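=== RUN LOG ===
request id: a7f3
mode: sequence -> structure
chains: 1
length: 215
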Amino acid sequence: QGISINNLVFRKPTIILRSDASEFGIGGYNILSGRAWRLELPVDCRLRTSLNSLEFIACVISIWIESIMNSIPDESCILSQTDSSSATGWLRKSNFSDLEDEVVQMTTARHLAYTMLSCKSCLYSQWFPGDENQVLDSLSRDFQLNNEELTHLITTFLPEQVPFGFHLCPLPEEIVSWLTLLLRNQPFKEQWSKPPTRSKLSLGQDTSSTSSQLR
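=== RESULT ===
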């Protein structure tokens, strides 16, 4: 049937996703629908790969969730935003090998390709400063708060960064299984020995100077 011209030409995004990662967790949200997610990495999955790889994984999971929810109509234009310049580049072009030190990136890139082909849609990526979106920092770090507490914190103090109806959804089990298996199959780069760091928002620090308006 060929490839739709709508997936080849420059277009305005119809779905906008943001994601982030820390050494002990990942998270993201759809800035149009308000659907958000997060995952605290099990201790035995931490420090198995680089932070940039986790940023890349978070981008792909955000797209994967929308696909599972059947929220990506054919010929959609997806914009994935991240504060990792490496992940931004990998979303555009991945040239990893099957060597041991690139297996996480290669596996993630292959799953991204499969997902995008299944959705019959196109993908753009964009880097943006992490300080301009404290929501993501909180999603990927503040696991000391339950979903209700975190949602209240974000919608109360950062309402300009999230759409009406912002809500946290559980991560599908198939995604959790895929990620934990991928990470547990990698050797430890070093043993986890430090306490998690929390976001400025949950620590009560001023975030007003780094807030950004939704556009």
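=== NOTES ===
DSSP finds six helices and six strands in the chain.
Strands lie at 15-22, 25-30, 35-40, 77-82, 122-127, 167-168.
=== END ===
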